[in-house]
Design brief:
The protein has 790 residues and is an alpha/beta fold. 59% of the residues lie in helices and 10% in strands. The chain contains 28 helices and 13 strands.
């Protein structure tokens, strides 16, 4: 089939074995937002309407029962004259310098002192309904001002402070703001009168404290110089440093000698433990020249001369005298070897003792360096610490002198400022405004806002339900699983434009319908894979009952038979055999009788469907039939013998997750097709089934998604409509003179060649519709279709 066919959802042929890699399978499913919106559009519209109603009702109730009014005033904060050389009241060099001052004033407006003065004002106590509600309870009224009624804030990037009051009465809000501003400005004026006196006292105290600190610091500097003369300290520090360098150099030399002595001593110890006392060449000469060895060598020479004399006198090697001399020679030689070994060992022990003494001497020398080096380093650290203390004292002296000079300058400047300015830093920028409604918001804002909020909540719940839904509903859910390939989809029978028809034998009874076309799509995909790989046996299995495995097996077999293949269906569902009911064949004898040996010739148990090259081997008498029959060599031999008589062998298998037959069949068949029922099977169930069956002999070709609703996929509806348009053309052509029986005959190859070539046959019209598929690409609705969105 063409990949552009509106019903086609068949991916290209994947790897030659195993399942093609799929997407990652997680807890949340991948969803198509457009499909979800289209599926739930009625609910979303209803949610929008309900949201509008809720917004209107909420606004009406809040406006009648909880309306709030807000009045506000603005204050301007001036920096004043911070220097004596300024010519104006306000000079802002940097907004950041003034911001702490503004924030301080904001806190002052909301201070307890200002609020207490506000509550004492007669207009507030006698003319406002706000104050009357507290029954003269000043504590409760002040708490309400702090937490609910009053607001004071700095307007960013300006020198302004906004003061506002919010009450249920418009007049009360304006009265409270007006009185608050008056109380606060009066306090600012009173504060300015005494500010310079307080500042002068503060600066004078600061100046005196700094002078006292300077005097104390100068005394410490003099004492430090007396205890640590600078020139003597430098000389002593240099001498100690030079001595440390010299001692470190000597120590390094001794450490190297110690390392060499330790290495030599370690080698001697290893030889001592191994019993290796072999002397060096010079030591051998020393041992050889010893008196004991010389005496033994003289005896050996005498004995050898005596032996030669006796031999010359005619005595043979076996003469007693010769043998006695040889015995003496051996005895002396042995004594010489023992004497040599004793002297070599004695010499080796002397070397070991000397090595140990050398290591001890070097180690003692190193130990003598350490105390002196530590003493010198401590002296150097004391010198450096004294120098650092001295430098710190000098820096502190400079800092205190700078503070003293700054305090003197402040005092002089304060005298000038006091003569030039009154120092008022806050003034009224705009008086209290007429109170305006601040709550609830305007209906044009609140009603759309509530409607959008409610609609968004419903939309979020819809998408959350879609994300958490584990059921397989569309082709995209199959593609999202790991190690799965989607072979095709089979629509719900109600989606067939020809009318609601039973799914059983729909390929034979309604060959021009939507379901029959879906089976042709699947047939092409399955046969393409099987032919390329040389497969002949194909098992069809689902995860659990009710997936439509038997009906799919029969319709797929009929579709293959119509393409000219010799097809055999074998019913291996011993628990619930159904193929004999679908095809109207007797239940027995069948597969069980053949496997048990009750029926020798399996061809006598095979029934042929009239008008099709489709045959059935029923399950047989299933009473007491064990699934192990499918694991016997008889079943393997049966399949081998039937492959020579049929092109395709379809096997209707029981549910894979409930029974073991599917796993047994995987050992004998060439390939398997898995069936999933939309809106019933879950992704986890399919994943477990794939994991359970994959890795066997059978090659899992892919998954068929059965009973798909157009609404579940969203994009399928347009595809079904396009098929219906072509379906209408085929019906019109068929009405001119071609009977459905002729279509069936042409499909299975039993009609004459002349009949098959008639242009007005329904089968020919469908083929032409599929070949003219390129015309659909110009339709705007079909542009939404692609494999990823299925």
């Amino acid at each position: 089939m063409s990949a552009n066919n509106p019903l086609s959802n068949i991916p290209p042929l994947g790897a030659t074995s195993g399942m093609a890699p799929g997407g990652a399978s997680g807890r949340f499913r991948q969803i198509d937002p457009v499909r979800v919106v289209r599926t739930h559009i009625v609910l979303l519209i209803a949610a929008l309407v309900v949201g509008v109603i809720l917004g209107a009702g909420s606004w009406f109730m809040l406006d009648r029962g909880m309306a709030q009014f807000t009045s506000q005033a603005t204050l301007s904060v001036n920096a004043g004259m911070s220097r004596a050389d300024q010519t104006g009241v306000t000079e802002l060099s940097n907004m950041r310098d003034l911001e702490p001052k503004i924030l301080t004033e904001v806190n002052a407006i909301r201070s307890q002192e200002i609020l207490d003065d506000l509550l004492k004002q007669k207009p507030v106590r006698e003319q406002t309904d706000w104050f009357k509600q507290f029954n003269a309870d000043l504590e409760e009224a002040r708490t309400d001002l702090e937490e609910e009624t009053l607001r004071a804030s700095h307007i960013r990037d300006t020198t302004l402070i906004r003061v506002s009051a919010t009450t249920s009465n418009a007049t009360d809000a304006q009265t409270i703001v007006s009185e608050l501003v008056g109380v606060y400005l009066l306090q600012v004026e009173n504060r300015a009168e005494s500010r310079y006196d307080k500042d002068r006292v503060a600066f004078q105290r600061q100046f005196e404290d700094v002078v006292a600190q300077i005097e104390l610091l100068e005394a410490r500097i003099r004492g430090h110089l007396r205890d640590h003369p600078q020139s003597a300290m430098d000389q002593r520090n240099d001498a100690a440093t030079q001595e440390v360098l010299f001692l470190n150099a000597k120590k390094s030399e001794v450490i190297e000698l110690l390392s060499a002595a330790q290495a030599s001593y370690q080698q001697l110890q290893q030889r001592l433990e191994a019993g290796d006392f072999a002397p060096a060449d010079d030591e051998v000469q020393l041992i050889e020249s010893s008196v004991a060895i010389q005496q033994l060598d003289a005896q050996l020479r005498q004995l050898r001369v005596s032996r030669e004399t006796q031999i010359d006198s005619g005595k043979g090697e076996s003469h007693p005298v010769i043998e006695s001399i040889d015995s003496q020679i051996r005895h002396v030689e042995l004594e010489r070897e023992e004497a040599f070994d004793r002297q070599a060992r004695s010499l080796f022990n002397a070397k070991v003792e000397l090595g140990a003494q050398a290591v001890a001497v070097y180690q003692e020398q190193i130990n003598t360096f350490e105390p002196r080096i530590a003493e010198l380093r401590a002296q150097i650290e004391d010198f450096q610490r004294a120098q650092a203390d001295y430098e710190t004292l000098l820096r502190n002296q400079e800092a205190l002198e700078a503070q003293r000079d700054e305090a003197q300058a402040k005092l002089r400047e304060l005298d000038v400022l006091e003569r030039r300015s009154g120092g008022i830093t806050v003034e009224l920028a705009s008086p209290a405004t007429t109170a305006k409604k601040s709550f609830p918001p305007h209906w044009a804002v609140m009603i759309p806002g509530v409607a959008l909020l409610f609609t968004g909540l419903v939309t979020g719940l819809v998408f959350l339900r879609e994300l958490l839904d584990q059921r397989v509903r569309a082709a995209a859910d199959i593609k999202a699983l790991n190690d799965t390939t989607l072979l095709g989809i089979i629509p719900n029978a109600g989606e067939d434009p020809s009318g609601k028809v039973p799914a059983e034998r729909v390929v034979e009874r309604q060959p021009t319908g939507l379901l029959a076309e879906s089976y042709r799509q699947i047939r092409s995909a399955v046969l393409s894979k099987m032919d390329r790989r040389g497969y002949k046996t194909l098992a069809v299995a689902a995860a659990k009952p009710g997936a439509g495995t038997s009906s799919i097996t029969q319709n797929l077999g009929a579709s293959m038979a119509m393409s000219g293949r010799r097809v055999l269906i074998i019913d291996t569902n011993f628990r619930r055999p159904h193929q004999s009911d679908l095809l109207g064949a007797p239940e027995s004898p069948g597969l069980i009788e053949v496997l048990r040996g009750d029926q020798r010739d399996p061809m006598q148990c095979i029934h042929t469907v009239d008008g099709l090259s489709l045959s059935l081997l029923p399950a047989g008498n299933t009473n007491g039939a064990a699934p192990e029959l499918l694991e016997t060599p008889a079943f393997r031999d049966l399949l081998a013998s039937l492959e020579s008589s049929f092109d395709i062998i379809l096997i209707d298998a029981p549910p894979a997750l409930l029974t073991s037959e599917a796993q047994l069949l995987c050992k004998h068949v060439d390939a398997m097709v898995l069936v999933a029922r939309a809106r019933t099977d879950t992704r986890g169930m399919l994943q477990r089934m794939v994991g359970q069956l994959d890795g066997q002999r059978a090659d899992i070709l892919g998954v068929l998604l059965n009973d798909v609703l157009a609404a579940a996929g969203g994009y399928l509806r347009q595809n079904f409509r396009e098929f219906h348009r072509y379906h209408g053309k085929s019906n019109g052509s068929a009405a001119k003179g071609t009977k459905p029986s002729a279509v069936a005959a042409a499909s299975n190859g039993s009609a004459p060649p002349s009949d098959r070539m008639k242009p007005d046959s329904e089968e020919t019209v469908i083929v032409e519709a599929l070949q003219d598929r390129d015309e659909l690409e110009d339709l705007d609705d079909f542009d939404d279709f692609d494999e990823d969105k299925d």
